[in-house]
Design brief:
single chain, about 60 residues, mainly alpha, Helix Hairpins
């Protein structure tokens, strides 16, 4: 998801998306520990998406 798409969403939608990404991140970490995760870049990409969404939420709260 691009930053411009994130900025168009509401705070509630972003918070729900963060929950979904955290679930995905948990699953990726489990797959990594069992050596079933083929694309390890998914972990860092998911962490980045979570951080970006949290930043946009803060921006919207402060505005």
């Amino acid at each position: 998801m691009k930053l411009s798409e994130m900025r168009e969403k509401t705070v509630d939608e972003l918070q729900q998306q963060i929950v979904d990404w955290k679930k995905d991140l948990f699953n990726y970490r489990l797959q990594l520990s069992t050596h079933k995760l083929e694309n390890t870049a998914l972990i860092s990409k998911t962490k980045t998406l979570i951080a970006q969404a949290k930043t946009i939420i803060k921006e919207k709260e402060n505005a």
